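R.M. (postdoc): so does anyone remember the format we settled on? I'll just put the structure tokens first.
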């Protein structure tokens, strides 16, 4: 199934949203809850799976299996299809769930497949397949954390992913290698080799503050990295949230300062 040819425009800087322009009978598929607003008479329908031919070819069971894959990635069982039922062009608008950037990806330009973190997908043209990419290597399987179960976007249409903080696109040459915090890797092309590498040295592993494992990517191909993993942002907010009494735990006291030094908050 050839994906619908949708047009788009990005708005904003650190709190972005994307306008998807639909011709009559064109459809965009989005995560549940991603809609900002839409023109009339665009019709909204909740669907199993991603609405691609991969789900429809097997009838109800095919759709059920497609939806079941999304449960593995921690996403909602359902997705939402937005179809332009009018006579002229109409637009639907989708917003990222946290501060950062929206990355438009024409899958035709990336070998018809992109592998991304399981919570990175925002929306896509109807016909793009959204599935699960299991990393087969043992190291990735046992220690990959955020990177073990990833999503794959396949097809010949437009897809949109979002990242937290600033984002950088790196083109890796054959054999070129990067070591990345597992939460900072957003997406990669299918030609890029992905693995997990343990931090060397006892002191670095336990006192370095960077975790026990790196994601390692080896070219050729493109990778997309984010400066602020959402898990890191959420952890900082939690640590600095007011206690029940209205003040941060230990705030303004000698014990609070010492505690901050010991757990690294003051560095």
């Amino acid at each position: 199934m050839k994906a619908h040819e949708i047009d788009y425009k990005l708005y904003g800087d650190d709190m972005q949203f994307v306008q998807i322009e639909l011709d009559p009978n064109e459809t965009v598929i989005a995560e549940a809850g991603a809609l900002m607003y839409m023109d009339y008479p665009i019709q909204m329908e909740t669907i199993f799976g991603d609405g691609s031919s991969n789900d429809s070819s097997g009838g109800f069971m095919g759709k059920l299996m497609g939806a079941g894959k999304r449960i593995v990635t921690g996403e909602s069982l359902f997705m939402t299809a937005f179809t332009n039922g009018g006579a002229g062009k109409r637009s639907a608008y989708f917003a990222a769930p946290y501060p950062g950037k929206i990355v438009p990806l024409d899958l035709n330009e990336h070998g018809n497949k992109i592998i991304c973190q399981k919570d990175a997908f925002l929306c896509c043209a109807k016909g793009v397949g959204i599935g699960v990419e299991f990393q087969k290597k043992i190291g990735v399987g046992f220690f990959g954390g955020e990177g073990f179960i990833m999503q794959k976007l396949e097809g010949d249409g437009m897809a949109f992913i979002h990242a937290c903080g600033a984002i950088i696109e790196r083109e890796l040459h054959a054999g070129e290698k990067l070591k990345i915090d597992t939460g900072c890797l957003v997406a990669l092309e299918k030609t890029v080799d992905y693995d997990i590498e343990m931090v060397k040295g006892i002191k670095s592993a336990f006192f370095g503050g960077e975790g026990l494992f790196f994601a390692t990517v080896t070219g050729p191909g493109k990778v997309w990295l984010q400066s602020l993993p959402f898990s890191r942002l959420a952890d900082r907010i939690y640590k600095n949230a007011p206690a029940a009494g209205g003040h941060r735990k230990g705030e303004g006291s000698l014990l609070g300062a010492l505690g901050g030094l010991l757990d690294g908050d003051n560095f």
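R.M.: ...and that's the designed sequence above, right after the tokens. Also worth knowing: The radius of gyration is 21 Å. The chain has one domain: 7-228.
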